[in-house]
Amino acid sequence: MIFITQLIYIHHGQEQVFDEFENIAIPAITKYNGRLLLRVRPAVDSFIENQIDPPYEIHLVEFQTNEDFENFKNDENRIKFLHLKAQSVKSAILYQGVQI
Questions:
Q1: φ, ψ of residue 44 in degrees (nearest 5)
Q2: Checking DSSP bridges between strand 34-40 and strand 89-97, what pairing results, if any?
Q3: Distance separating alpha carbons of residues 70 and 93, to the nearest angstrom
Q4: What does the pLDDT profile of the chain (100 residues) look like in tens digits?
Q5: Most buried by CB count within 10 Å: which residue of 20, 77, 90, 97?
Q6: Which residue, 39, 43, 52, is CA-closest to 5?
Q7: What distance in Å separates the CA atoms of residue 70 and residue 34, rounded to the nearest whole number?
C-alpha cells in the first residue's frame, strides 16, 4: 500500500475549472485500486503554524501499488482533461509514503 499526499495551490479565480478537473480525476482513482481518504479545503485560520503558503486543497489517497498509481496518472480520460489542471493549478507538492 502506498499513500499520496498532495498540497494543491490554484490560480485565483480558477476554482470552478479546478473543480471540473477534480470531477473527472477523483472518480478514476477507484478504477486503479485507489481510495481518496481525505479531501480537505482548509480555512486560512485553521493553520496553527506554517512555514509555507497554505494550500487550497489537501488530498490523501491510497493505492495498492505504485503501478496502480502510475496507471491512474496515465488514465486516458484523465489525460484528455489535463488542460483544466494546467489552467487552474498554480503548483502542487506531492509526498509519497507508506504506512508504518
A1: -55, -35
A2: unpaired
A3: 17
A4: 999 999 999 999 999 999 999 999 999 999 999 999 999 999 989 999 999 999 999 999 999 999 999 999 999 999 999 999 999 999 999 999 988 8
A5: 20
A6: 39
A7: 11
CATH number of the CATH domain containing 82: 3.30.70.100
List of residues 6+ apart from 100 with CB closer than 8 A: none
CA 68 – CA 32 distance, rounded (Å): 5
Structure pTM? 0.91
* Residue 5: count of CB within 10 angstroms of its CB: 15
Cell output for 1: 500500500
Q: In sequence order, what DSSP letters do the residues of the chain get, joined into one string?
A: -EEEEEEEEE-TT-HHHHHHHHHHHHHHHGGGTEEEEEEE---GGG-S--SSPPPSEEEEEEESSHHHHHHHHT-HHHHHTHHHHHHHEEEEEEEEE---
